[in-house]
Amino acid sequence: MVISTTTLIVTMAASPVCSSSPDKYRSQFLSHDEYIELRNSEDKHLHDELASIRCSINNVKRELKADIKELRDNVTTQNQRLGRLEDQTQRLEDQTQRLEDQTQRLEDQTQRLEAEVRQSQAYMRNKGLKNPTLPIRPVVVYRPGHGILEPEPLRFPRNADDFYSLRDPQTDRHRSMLAYLAVFYDVQLRSAGHLPEEESNSDDSDDDEIVLEHPDLVVEKLEDILGLNEDKIIKFKERALQTASRAPSKPIKRSQISWPEAGPIPGPRRQKLELRVTSGQEAYFYDPERPKSVSSEGLTNAHVGWGTRSTPSSQRARLQWSPKVARVSEPPNLEPERPKSASKSTEAESIDTDNDTHVFTNSPER
Fold this sequence. Notes:
Residues 1-20 form the signal peptide. Residues 244-271, 286-366 are annotated as: Disordered. Residues 61-123 form a coiled coil. Among the domains are: 29-97; 128-243, no CATH class. The strands form two sheets. It has a two-stranded antiparallel sheet. It has a two-stranded antiparallel ribbon with strand order 3-4. The longest helix is centred in the first third of the chain and has 96 residues, at 32-127. It is mainly alpha-helical. The chain contains eleven helices and four strands. The chain has helices spanning 32-127, 160-164, 172-184, 189-192, 197-201, 207-213, 215-226, 230-245, 282-285, 323-329, 342-355; strands at 141-143, 147-149, 273-274, 305-306.
């Protein structure tokens, strides 16, 4: 900014200047040189201020440019990140869609397999059906987008008699049931070649009318679908009629039972109680100081129980009382045992062996 220096024209006040105070107003006026010097100092001061302001503005501009550049770089980086995130999001959406499609296919396959299993179970159950009064198990169907469908219970035949009565539907219920089953199980008579040529080529004929006009063909197709076997049912009815036509046999009384003449009436064989010595009760019948005989060695694992009579009564052993049993049952003597001479012990053992009769040993026949 350039300030031009002009001559300042100072008009004096209209009031007259008093001669008594000439120095009072002389200080209010500047000379031309003083005015120029004052203006130059002020111009310099203004120039310095403007230069500092201009420098500050330039600094602010540079900072703003740097900030704007940094902001643009950040925005560009964020845009790139957003672009990558959008790509990742798109890939995730594609993967999610593929997973949903795979899950849907797995669900469809699972439902299809479940439908096939249930169809096989119902088919085998109905195939073995013989009694016409027993209920028929409904066969389910699978349709994509709808899943597993079951027929309505009120529009499904209760048993085989009700099903085969659809060959000649006489009531509105049977006609409605036949048409419903043909639609539910998708019975196609035209494509199967069961209809005459003029009926299969006619476009004006309604499917329901075709079903009602040929109920025997529809029942035959439904029989194959449900797994029914009419021959088994017919044979079952024939056997039932034959059984019903026979006279019921009277029950045989016990007095009418004839036994063989030779010999008495056989009765239940009773087991005889046979006492045998167990290993825990061996001390009551044997003296521990006495050596065991050969005949008593086999009674180590003997026990008391029921047994059949294997030997004659004359050859079986007898339980005989021995005085040494009482001595065994008595509490042992606390006095120390005195050593016996070898001759006395041998003599006593020989006497015991000769005179005593052991339990369950065969006594010599006399």
